Amino acid sequence: MDFFAFVKPKNELETVPDSQQNVPFVPEEMWMKCPKCNTLLLTTDMEENLNVCTKCGHHFRMSAKQRIHLMADCDSFAEHDSELRSSNILDFPGYDKKLEKARQKANESVICGECLIGGVKAVLCVMEAGFMMGSMGTVTGEKITRAFEYATENRLPVVVCTVSGGARMQEGILSLMQMAKTSGAVKRHSDAGLLYITVLTDPTTGGVTASFAMEGDIILAEPNTLVAFAGPRVIEQTMRQKLPKDFQTSEFVLQKGFIDAVVSRDKLKATVIKLLKMHGYKEAAQ
Amino acid sequence: MTAYEKVMAARDAKKLTAVDYIAHMFGDSFIELHGDRRFSDDRAIVAGLCMLYDTPLTVIGIEKGRNTKERMERNFGQAQPEGYRKALRLMKQAEKFHRPVLCLVDTSGAYPGIGAEERGQGQAIAENLMEMMTLKTPILTILIGEGGSGGALALAVSDEVWMMENSVYSVISPEGCASILWKDSSKAPQAAEALKMTAQDLFDLGVVERIIRQPKAEDSAMFESLKLLISRTLEKNLSKPVDALTEQRYARFRKIGTAHLD
Ligand SMILES: [Zn+2]
Predict the structure, then answer these.
(1) CB half-sphere exposure, A186, CA atoms < 13 A
(2) CA distance A285 to chain B (A)
(3) Could you tell me if residue B183 is inside a domain?
(4) What is the mean pLDDT of residues B208-213?
(5) A60, A115 Cβ separation under 8 angstroms
(6) Test mutation, B7, B95, B117, B208, chain A, max A CBs within 10 A
(7) Are A112 and A80 in contact, with CB atoms under 8 Å apart?
(8) In a domain, B55, yes or no
(9) Taking CB atoms and an 8 Å limit, are A172 and B181 in contact across chains?
(10) Are the CB atoms for A173 and B207 separated by under 8 Å?
(11) What is the tens place of the pLDDT at every residue in B64-116?
(12) Span A61-278: which CATH code?
């Protein structure tokens, strides 16, 4: 599976020649600054810490591949529908170029497939912020829909990790229709008595929030995740007033009653495994 | 008319609103029903029971208001979660009595406000999409003005969706699209073309089944023939086994925009 070409980058500091070891200057890409506590962090330390700030616990965004690595048991993930690619269906000006640029970072806005999670067979869909901010295009909706249909047919639970800036404007009404289509597929999976767990990650907004993100039997979110239908900028414009500080964070929507729990990244997989097992899903025979 | 002229026509303050459609087609038979039984009564949604000839019908419309006072009362046709929950409550009631549902959509979008977010705007819309897909009674939606994004779709997961000739339906307003993509909201006319949001565009894309011609002066003859068309469609769907009906509804949305895949 070429998918598992993803390997944690080696600690490049180890390869710095001796002669340069005492030079205080370290190439910029090896450091990142935590936007929350301003601490400078070594990227290698960060990766070891699941991209969570070692000082303040701020959760950095992860790529879909990193997140699959986090959620799925080692080497168990088999991708589905990897051949589906967004295209400029409406001939929207500039969209071809945008897609080309997006594909330098990732193939698509979502990766779907089946895997083992703590030995339990499940369908896993992970959205990709690197591809047009995880916006909902026709292919996004189609892949999610197929994943739910596959899970229904094979009586598997589904785990979806969301991240999305909202609609894919360049696909016009077809972007909107994905909300109906995916919701229909979730409903049929639900009516079949199967479990759907949503994991909301930063940011989850717009049409994804108003469809499959909010349709899980159990909705988990990472700390300090933006969870919104209308984003804060839109609301500020309409209300012409500053919003309360923690408005639309996962902690805020938890308090308002719209999600089940805020779970930190290091406990995410264990929590999902527990929930799967409590719903009668058993570890697959080796 | 250009696409943007259609947008302007769809937003025209003198245009007939949902309550006009209800009055023209169902007259005195309409009994308004209020409230979501959870938080409040959202006046941006007008809903109730009426008679479609001799068949009882649940009608649910998004109402923009016809003058300044009404528009304030109706929040300019921007519904909040309680509005979508009222709509769902009445759809479930219709399902219980196997009564058909007619939705009339006219909104620039769901209300983007602090309270609406606090009360789960996204969750309310998502629940409607899910529940409508398997609602065990016929649903028909007609876009009578603006069809703005998720706030419109929340009443449009139906067996058939029709558009009035001068209505529009889009994932985002052309102004919003132009300002986000091109940092220039004056390019809204180009965005309106590009978004393919007119009735004809949406018919060509297979997103709507029917375009209703609108004479210059919307007269009683137009409403009489529209009512007849609604009745025929709902009667046809009432006669189908409900499982076949919901299967067909799912298939309807399942195939939209998939022709270019594979
Ligand atoms: Zn930090």
Answers:
(1) 31
(2) 34
(3) no
(4) 97
(5) no
(6) B117
(7) yes
(8) yes
(9) no
(10) yes
(11) 999 999 999 999 999 999 999 999 999 999 999 999 999 999 999 999 999 99
(12) 3.90.226.10
> What local confidence, expressed as pLDDT, does residue A28 receive?
60
Q: Does a structural domain hold residue B77?
A: yes
For residue B192, being part of any structural domain is answered with no
Query: B114 to chain A: which residues are within 8 Å by CB?
Result: 235, 239, 243-244, 247
Cα dist from B75 to A80, B33, B42, B70, B83, whole Å: 45, 18, 9, 8, 11
pLDDT digits 0-9 by tens, A210-266: 999 999 999 999 999 999 999 988 888 877 878 888 999 999 999 999 999 999 999
Print the domain residue range for B90. Answer: 3-171+197-233
Q: In this structure, what DSSP letter does residue B203 have? A: H
Whole-number average pLDDT of chain B: 96
- For residue A83, the chain B residue with the least C-alpha distance is B262
Contacts of A2 (CB under 8 A, 6+ apart): none
Q: Do B122 and A228 touch (CB under 8 A)?
A: yes
Planar angle of CA B256, B258, B262, nearest 5 degrees: 170
| B 126-145 near A (Cβ less than 8 A) | 126-127, 129-131, 133-134
What pLDDT is stored for residue B181 in this prediction? 92
Nearest to A177 among B118, B207, B261 (CB): B207
Residue contact B130–A184, C-beta within 8 A: yes
The Cβ-side half-sphere exposure at A134, using a 13 Å CA radius, reads: 30
CB A47 within 8 A of CB A8: yes
The whole-number pLDDT of residue A30 equals 84
Residue with the two structure tokens 């936007």 = A35
Check which CATH number belongs to the domain holding B39 and give it: 3.90.226.10
- Which two structure tokens, joined as six digits, stand for A147? 């994943």
Q: Where are the domains of chain A?
A: 10-60, 61-278
Contact (Cβ atoms closer than 8 angstroms) between residue B133 and residue B157: yes
- Mark the ranges of chain A whose per-residue pLDDT is less than 70: 1-28, 286
**Nearest-angstrom CA–CA distance, A222 and A251:** 9
Spatial CA neighbour of B6 closest among B107, B194, B209, B146: B146
Structural domain count, chain B: 1
Chain B nearest-CA distance from A111, in A, is: 17
Which helix (H) or strand (E) segment holds residue A160: the answer is strand A158-164
- Cβ within 8 Å, pair A243-B110: no
Residues 45-104 of chain B with CB under 8 A from chain A are none
Measure Cα distances from B160 to A33, A183, B38, B186, B199 in Å: 52, 17, 30, 34, 14
Q: Between the CA of residue A209 and those of A103, A247, A269, B200, what are the distances in Å? A: 24, 16, 22, 29
